[in-house]
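Throughout our pipeline, every protein is held as a single compact record rather than as scattered files. Such a record has a labelled line for the sequence and another for the backbone structure tokens. The remainder of this section carries one protein's record, kept here as part of the documentation:
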Amino acid sequence: MSSRRLNLLLVLAVVMFATLSLFLGPAQLGAHDVWHGLWTGEGATGLVVREIRLPRALLAILIGAVLGLSGAALQGLLRNPLAAPSLFGAPQAAALGAVLVLYFGFVDALSFALPVAAIAGAFLSVGLLVLVAGRSASLVVLILAGLAISSLAGALTSLAINLAPNPFAVTEIVFWLLGSLEDRTMRHLAILAPFALVSVVLLLAHGRAFKAMTLGEEVAQSLGFAVDRVRMLVVVGVATGVGACVAVAGAIGFIGLVAPHLVRPLVRHDPERVLIPSALAGAALLSAADLGVRLIPSNGEIKVGVLTALIGVPFFLWIVFRRRRELSGSSA
């Protein structure tokens, strides 16, 4: 399948899921109500469509796209299909930043300051990563430093939950960590958008470098690519985008792992051509998951981070088993 046709099909899927998102919710709205509320913003219908459902649909698209693109970029950089955005600790550090302001009672779970604190945590993790690993560190050193940072951030998050002063603080922290697009507004979208744009530009700019690096880092350097610079800019791009996404929506896992795998066979495993389809597939996956949590019967809405994890873990195990069979087959 050509990349253009694949991208068109994925765009249509994203548009379809986003449109359905405008219709789903506690308030039952018809097509005329949704259309009228979307374009005029008048009355209760306009409030529901423009201020509640539209931001949720747009955030699902943007966050899914950033997570999918980040996963494809990391897999291209590391030449490893099991690489995921959490590898360098940015999501865990972003979660820690938000948890700390919740723990100390500075904000509540819907506060405007919450994503700002989480983005600050993500940037702090990148600065610490550069400080620990150095600007010209190898991939192994970067991965080890990232794992150390993510483990520390996870431990501190658990400590904050364990020492929370009251059960209400624990509830706010835990529900936020589960990941959700519920009750998000246009101001959350405004916070996320600039960081997402920086991330997308940085990651898309290195598609040719990923393609050259499939032949090895030495070959990529001989072709004129500054491998150390590419490595650091990709880490910064992933941390910026994923940190901002976690800041706004909490922890939403496995989109960055699953999306590239769904489209990679359709673009003949080309690490450059997989970037844009991965972003579109990520947007479609998260939009579909957000629809799913509203369709599953329950007393309260299931968190979208829980649903993506339930789907993503079996997929991850399938990738591991398939990879093991390929390695055992090639060594036989």
In short: Residues 89 and 273 are 26 Å apart (CA to CA).
